[in-house]
Amino acid sequence: MAATAQNPPPPPRTLNVQRLADARRPEIQSLHSLVSCRLSASFRLPRSLRRRTTSHLRRSKRRRSSASRDSPSDASDDDPHKTREKKKVCRRERRRRELTSNPELGFVVAGDGTKRLRTHVWHAKRFQMVKRWGFYLPLGIHGRGRGSRAVLKLLQNGTLVHDASYYLPIQLEGPQDCLVSVLKMVLIPSPPGISEMPSVQLSHKVLQGACYQDAMLYHMDSSASRLIAPVKYMWHHMTSEIVECKNSSNSESGILSVRKLWIWVHAAAFHKGYNALRAACEKQQMHANGATVSCVSQEGRIARLDIMGAKVSQLMNKFFCPVTISDKACITSEAQKQFNMDQIEKFAPGAILTLRVKDPRLLSSDLNSEFDEVPVNLDSLDSCKLYDNSELWDSHCKIDPPVLQSILCTEKNKKRLNTLFLKPTNQEMPADQQKDGFSRSCTVILLKHSLGWSIILPLSWVKPFWLSMVSSGAHVIGLRERRWVAWKNKVPCFPYDFPDSEAYKSLLADKGALFDVSAQLRPHTKQPLKTPMPPPWDCMVASSHHICKNTIHCKAPNLDVYVPRTSEALKDCVEKMDTGEKGFVCLVRVLISAFKEGLFEEGAVVCAPCTDDLSGWNNTRLAKEVEEYQEKWQLQLTQSAVESYFMQLESDRWALQVPEDPVDLKNFRWPIGFVTTGAVHACNDRVAMALCDIRILAALRRQQYLQTETEQPEIFVLVRNMKSMAYRRAIATIVLEQQQEDLHFL
Q1: Which domain holds residue 410?
Q2: Where does the POPLD domain lie (predicted)?
């Protein structure tokens, strides 16, 4: 009994919570107050600790929206196609379909209106892309902008390819005489008239459509200093009907012969070029008696691919295979020779060759058995205009796109199964029914230039040719590498080497704005020196007049920059300056070669040397004396003089600042030009391209002739990089003195 009395009683079978809470009320209240103080009266579970109760289920049903719950008809609809259409496709899938699509006409446009090239997906995976001139364009490979040595080596020993589809064609159509008069309004040099062209001249071949021509497109109702852009224009080849009309005795039939003309304009100046050509056509229509000239943009219909390098013909042999010529007049007994793409090397720069070639994707397989090849003779230049290319020239003609890749893969799989004596599956059979509206060949136009060929083809055919060229060993380049190629061949590149165009000003203004934004992100003590973009070309007027007092600002704020690119235009410009005509700065393109040392960058200042500086180029001494003198010769500015060489005014314009310190003034040299394309790093050739004032160059030549008593085509100048303190000796060579025209460009 004692043991049972000591054991505690068992817990009750039922517990009254209300009575327990009333009995323990003080203890519960004290515990609640303690917890609320620690949690700041917030008893909600933290967001980081919240979990969905069905998150571990892999196939949990998604909740229907309120609209679908309210409509019982939708819930009872069991059609899988309708439910698939109602379901919104994710952004990744929509973007993949958009970028991989190949529409017949037009570029793929981004959300902000920026156009994408047909090779955008290929470039975006491998190149640094920039938004420029209304397009997403490949700037270059990722990195710090190096790799010039490898690119230039491939130019000499390999093949380079560039997607130049941002060059857009404008088509003019009308009577031949009216088209020639329209070109005379806006082009320099203007094409001669029909009566002025002998059959032996190149202009006659250009008019026949056998060659293309380079020219400068200017505004119509203004002075010749308002350049729009350099262009290439080409005529549609003369058909037999036009030739008969021209040779007939009736002059009216020759006047009324309708011709077509393409003018290729860079995307940076396309809208202004199109407006200028349309205004010229309207003006010509007012003076013509019933004759009309139409101006139609071919944007989004025709594309252009540039191939450059020493092994261009070997690359073209891999993916170019001509097919049957549609013009039966070309198939003569003399033309029945075996075709060989190696013969394209015989063509001179400027030639035009039209071919109809097979789909390059079919050349590696046996799917091209349905074609009948016709041998072609390419020995004569006149044969290039006999191929029918009306499919490209007719803006209303529909161009069939290439066969889909899925169809080609299905056919290839069928052929493999047939070789194994196996029957194709049911899923592969309907592929033959999707061939309608597609083609296995297309018409291309080849334009010969000094570096290689330009391929003109339909926009929908860019992808097959692009992938075939890349897989055949071609090296793809962007805008930066293309500029290196232009520098290597001493050819100007638009718009970088055209300061008289508005595209040049807008491009450098955008670069200057990006530089200012990146500089503001750095501390004030580590911000780089701000340089003028674009360079102040007005300061050369002050240099020519030697105004050496205080801050010099040109009196003519709207001073035009004129760059003559033919010998005749240069003579006219010199005559205007001799008569005292003002209001413009005449610049000429020069090649700046470093003397012994120096590497000139883009934007470097070309300065005029003093008479005491000319002894630095004296090579008549002994070798030991020359080496000792070159080590002693140096001319430098102080850091403060470099920072204040150009001062920015309140109107965001830059002015030349003459130093007041006697020491800085002694080392100060007057600017005569600026470097537009600097020498490329990692290259032995240290030649830069610049534009200088022709008046100061002529004065320097006379001064140096009086001192050296020797006539030399070179002119001694000093060059200083914009952020450097040291002047470097250089030799300037005027391009127009070495050749009659400076119209070629990239």
Answers
A1: 404-438
A2: 452-527
